[in-house]
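Could you please consider the sequence and fold following this short note?
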Amino acid sequence: MKILAASFLQILACLTVHAGAEPPGWAVKVFNEKLSTRYELVQKPEPSFYVADFNGDGTSDVALLIKEKATTKVGIAIVEGGERKIKIVGAGKSFGNGGDDFGWMDVWSVRHAGKADRLYVAKSESASAVIYWDGSKYKWQQEGD
């Protein structure tokens, strides 16, 4: 029972979202150190970030909405909690059917799916997909058109 309770608490800790709150300080620090000259944080749509375990390593990661300054193309920066690496999808970098600009996205959320959580991205009443870690890189899986 203690193992089950610990797993449940770990899941809750990874899936925290605070409407109107700021992303975790460590993630903003990594973003500022590595990406702030080229990208900026975006506040819309709400929430502007999610905390979950996107790569399945047992540590919390942070997905931040970002915009490439030069082109204003929107995307997502996934700041990995363990190694503090950053993976960018969109924001000037082509990714799956989402292309290099996720400005079309007006809905996003986290889906728990086994060991690693997934990002659900969508245009309301239109296309949707999940972004997931396959063990070596992030991939796009189309869900609806």
Q: What stands out?
A: Residues 1-19 have pLDDT under 50 and may be disordered. The chain has one domain: 2-144. Residues 2-14 form the longest helix (13 residues).
